[in-house]
Amino acid sequence: MNVASQSYYDRRGILAALGKDGLIQLILILNTAVMLAPILIMLFAAFKTNAQIFQSPFGIPDFSNVANITKIWNETNFLRYLMNSVIVTGSSIVVILTLGTMAAYAVARYKFWGASFVLMFFLAGLTLPLKLAIIPLFILMRDLGILNTQLSLIVIYVAMGLPTTVFIMTGFIRTLPNELEDAARMDGASEPRIMWSIMLPLVRPAMVIAGIQNVVPIWNDFFFPLIFIQKDKLKTLPQGLTTFMGEYTTDWGVLFAGLLLSSAPVIIVYIILSRQFINGMTAGAVK
Amino acid sequence: MPGSPLVSRRLWISALIVPPLAFVALFVVYPIISAFAYAFFHWNGLARGEFVGFANFYKVLFTQPYADWTVNAFLHNVWVFFALMVLQNGLGFLLAYCLWRELPGAAFHRISVFLPVVLSTIIVGFLWKLFLHPLFGVVNISFRGLGLGGLAQPWLGQDSTALWSLIIANAWHMVGFPTLVFLAGMQRIPGEILDAVRMETESEWTKITKIVWPLVAPSATVVFTLLFVGSFNWFEIPYVMVGLEGSPHGATDVLGLYFYRTAFGNMSGSGQDFGAGSALAVLIFVFIALVAGIITFKLRAREIQI
C-alpha cells in the first residue's frame, strides 16, 4: 500500500510538472511571437510594394526586390544621419569613459577629504530627469555658442552618462585587490603610472558594461537633437528618421525600409552581443 | 624635499576629480538650479524679464485654459503609470518567473523579449503608428482577415482607444527591461531556500507570494521607481504617434508634450513661453522627486537582505 501510494504520488507529480512546464513554454512562445512579429513584419514590408503590404502583410516577400532600400539610400540623407549618429555617440562614449574612470578611480582608490561628497554629487545626478532642465540647457548652449553643433549633443550626453558610469566604475574599482598596487608603489612607480599600466587593464570589463549602458540611450536619443539641432546635415538617425518619414507618407514600402535600415545596426550588434547588452543595460538596476 | 610627495598626490587626485566634477556642475547641477530660478521670472522669448514671484505657477495651475490642460495631462500620466505597472512590470514579473525555470529555449526567449528594448523609441513609435493605421495597418487588416471586421477601428483617431494604443506600444517596447531585472533578482535567491520551500508546499502560488515576491523586492524597488520617473517624463512615443497636441483633441495629452508645447511653442509656431514652461518643469520635477523618494523609501523598508 505504501508503494502504491508512493507511485501514485510520483505520477501525479510528474503530470503536474509537465502541465506546469507546458504552460510556461506556451506563455514564453506566445510572448516571443508577439515580440518578434512586429520586427518580422517590418523586415518583410521593406521588400514589398504598397499593394503587397496591404494584401498580405505577413507574406514572405521576394528579398531581391530592393527598390525601397535603394530609394532610402539614394534619395534621403540616411547615410549622413547614420554618420552623425556614429560621430556623436562615439565621441560621447570616449569622453564618458575617460572622465568617469578618472572620477571613479580617485574616489575608489584614494582616501581624501571630501571623497564621499564627490560620490554623493555624482549620485545626485543619477535619477534626475535632465529633460526637465531643457530650458536652462538650451540657454546655456546658446550662450556657449554651440547650439546647432554636434558638440552640444556630446556635452549633454556626457553629463547624462557620467553619474551612472561613476557609480558602476566606483563599485568595480573598489573590488580590485591592493597587492599589485602596493607592490608597484614599493618599487617606486608614480601614481599615474600605477593607474595607467596596472589598474586600468583590470578595469576593462567594467568599462565595457558602462559603455554599453550609455551607448544604447545615446544612440537612440531623440529629445536633445530635437531641441538643439535644426540643420538637416547635422541631424542624428532618430531625428532624421522623423524627417524622411514625413516625406514618404504614402509610400509604405519606403517607410518600412527606412525603419528597417535605422534599426538594423542596433539589432545586428544586439544579436551578436546579446549577453553584454543585457548585462550592460540592466547594470544600474541589478545590484 | 619633504612634503613634496604629499603635494603631488593632492595634485594628482585633483587632476582626476576636477574635470568630471566641473562637467557635472556645469551641465547638470547648474541647469537644474537655473530651472528653479527661471520659473520666477517673466520671459520675452529668449530674454529674461523681471522677477514675478509665483505668477508663472499661478498661471499654469489656476488660470484657464492652462489649469484644465495641466490637470488633463497629469491625469493621463497617472493613468499611463498604473496601466504600465500592470502591462509592463506585472507581465515582466510573470515572464521572468517563466524564464527562471530555464526550460529548453529559455535563452532564445530571453534574447527576444529584450530585443525591442534596444530599439529607438522613435522607431517603435513609427512602427506601431503604421501598424495601427485605420485602413492599411496590419492590426485592422488582421481583424478583417479573421472575419472580425467589427473590431477594426481607428485606434489612434478616437478618444476611447488612443491612449491605450500608446500604452500598448510602450509595453511592447519596454517589457523586456523589468523581465530581465526581475530574472536577475530571482537568480540570486539561494537554492537552499527554494529546496526548503519545495519540502513545505507544492503550491506555486504560495511559492510566488510568500518566497519569490518578497525576495525580489530590491528589483521591484528599482523597476517601480524607474517606471514612475519614466511615466511622468513620457514624451517620445506620444510625440511620434499622436503629435505635439496629444490628438485627438487632447485625449493623449501628457505632461511631456504639454511642457514642450508651452516652452517651445506648438507646430503653428505660436506661444513660446519659457516662464510658464519653467514653472511646469519645476512642478513636474518636484512631484517626481517627492513621489520617487517615497516609493524608494517605502519599498526599501520591505526589502529583505539575503
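The CA atoms of residues 74 and 127 of chain B lie 26 Å apart.
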